Amino acid sequence: MSAARSKPVIKSPRELDLMAAAGGLVCAILDELEALAEPGVTTAELNEVAARRIRDAGATALFFGVVNKEARFPFPASICSSVNCEVVHGIPNDRPLAEGDIVSVDVGVRLRGYCGDSARTFAIGQVTPEAGRLLEVTRGALELAIEEIRPFVRWSVVARRIQERIERAGFGVVREFVGHGIGAEMHEEPKVPNYVDRDSRKTDFQLVPGMTLAIEPMVTAGRPEVKFKDRDQWTVVTRDGSLAAHFEHDVAVTEQGARVLSNGR
Fold first, then answer.
1. Residue ranges of the domains in the chain?
2. Around 263, how many Cα atoms within 13 Å sit in the side-chain half-sphere?
3. Contact (CB, 8 A) for 218 and 174
4. Are 114 and 100 in contact (CB under 8 A)?
5. How far apart are CA 140 and CA 196, in angstroms?
6. Which residues of the chain have pLDDT under 50?
7. pLDDT computed for residue 5 by the predictor
8. Counting C-beta atoms within 10 Å of the first and last residue's C-beta, which end of the chain has fewer, N or C?
């Protein structure tokens, strides 16, 4: 997104329904991938399944071919798959998933002109108690954010609750990557952090009906600092090598509170 901030795009009821259709497709794909994700399966195989489902639905993959100025090549897959210490933007590969791994899978589609974007972290077989608690806390932080959404509340109020939930559990909140507005474009204003500090307060915003946000806590089992894994400048990992989890939903602000657009309902 450009450095200049613009106003969030307020969506009509028709647009929200179109976004819910895109989000429903993403939800169905994540359901299928979660059922397939077990020891011995590769993330490349998960990507093939997702690509086929997206194509068969008449949609396009949001991530495939995305270019950023740091990366050495466009993103080469339909999903992001980030394993263990990988936080986001992991590239699917032929390494078989192993018992005890965790893998964050992010799926994005454009369907009939509108975007759906959602992520979950899957446990592969039996995972350690720490990994299980990391998934529980990260998922719970997203659920808390959705519960806290009300018209005319400042986002910083919600972000503080997310941060408190995560840090009280002894985990770290990633700062370098945040949520975002979403609609006809994958990335719209505003930026949606999962924490509050001096810089985030400068871009704080009020929740208003018709606003649509991709809310996505990214949580580390250790320190919150991250770095790029390789020189390709795509896969982001924890700097201390600790595990990371990522959950995301598209959410519309309504007069009654929050409408989740990516849960298939």
1. 13-260
2. 11
3. yes
4. no
5. 18
6. 1-4
7. 55
8. C
